[in-house]
Automatic annotation (TrEMBL):
Organism: Zalophus californianus (California sealion)
Protein's name in the database: Centromere protein M
Keywords: Centromere, Chromosome, Nucleus
A Gene Ontology term for the protein's cellular component: nucleus
Keyword match Nucleus: yes
Subcellular location(s) of the protein: Chromosome, Centromere; Nucleus
Lineage, highest ranks first: Eukaryota, Metazoa, Chordata, Craniata, Vertebrata
Length: 220
């Protein structure tokens, strides 16, 4: 089954259907266990439609024991008249070159149920590639790079993530290799948040990600 606004990667051997992203509406997101053990819904929220689509496509290419569902939304809240599964993880994407991107995320955060912030919300910074940064880190972002070309200072998003006590990832989504790397990390995060990794909870994941900027999720 394909839910409106979802990119779906069925179990091995199944067909794949892609539908357009859901935009706005009155529904307040609430967390909860996936309706079925094999279903892992994730929501990517951000104004960069093309980059979110590419990230979702990269995630759908990853090996995953469960049925992977990626929901794309420009903003929250979501429409209330659409049948969709419970969301296990929300990732807010902020482009350093768009103040509107940050403002949109800040406004969308008000529509997220507070229980999501117990390990089921994450932030992702992108846009460093356009800043002509001479040095890159292992995941495509150099903290020491020049941010003078950016509309948003990196620390602004860092403070936002800390305010909501949620993990923060860094990635130049326009670079295919970096995008593939963060896709792997997000799939692993989603598996944990959906309860598909025995002995590890979303709170465990939150503690791990907040203690290190580059945690080894594959070791969890």
């Amino acid at each position: 089954m394909c839910f409106p606004g979802l990119l779906v990667r069925p179990p091995e051997g199944g067909s794949r259907e892609v539908r357009s992203a859901v935009r706005t509406g009155p529904e307040r997101l609430q967390p909860g266990p996936s309706p079925r053990a094999w279903r892992s819904p994730l929501s990517l929220v951000g104004t960069e439609d093309a980059l979110l689509q590419q990230l979702a496509d990269s995630m759908l290419k990853e090996d995953c024991a469960s049925e992977l569902k990626v929901h794309l939304a420009r903003s929250l809240p979501l429409p209330s008249n659409v049948n969709r599964p419970r969301i296990d993880l929300i990732v807010f994407v902020v482009n350093l070159h768009s103040k509107y991107s940050l403002r949109n995320v800040e406004e969308s955060l008000h529509h997220v149920d507070t229980t999501f912030f117990l390990g089921k919300v994450g932030f992702l910074i992108t846009g460093a590639a356009k800043a002509d940064i001479p040095a890159r880190g292992p995941h495509g972002f150099s903290a020491a790079g020049r941010e003078g070309h950016c509309s948003i200072h990196r620390n602004t998003v860092v403070r936002l993530a800390r305010t909501y006590r949620s993990p923060l990832l860094f990635c130049d989504l326009e670079v295919e290799g970096f995008r593939a790397t963060v896709a792997q990390r997000l799939v692993r995060m989603l598996q944990i948040c959906a309860g598909h990794v025995p002995g590890v909870s979303a709170l465990n994941l939150l503690s791990l990600l907040r203690s290190s900027e580059n945690p080894a999720l594959e070791d969890v």
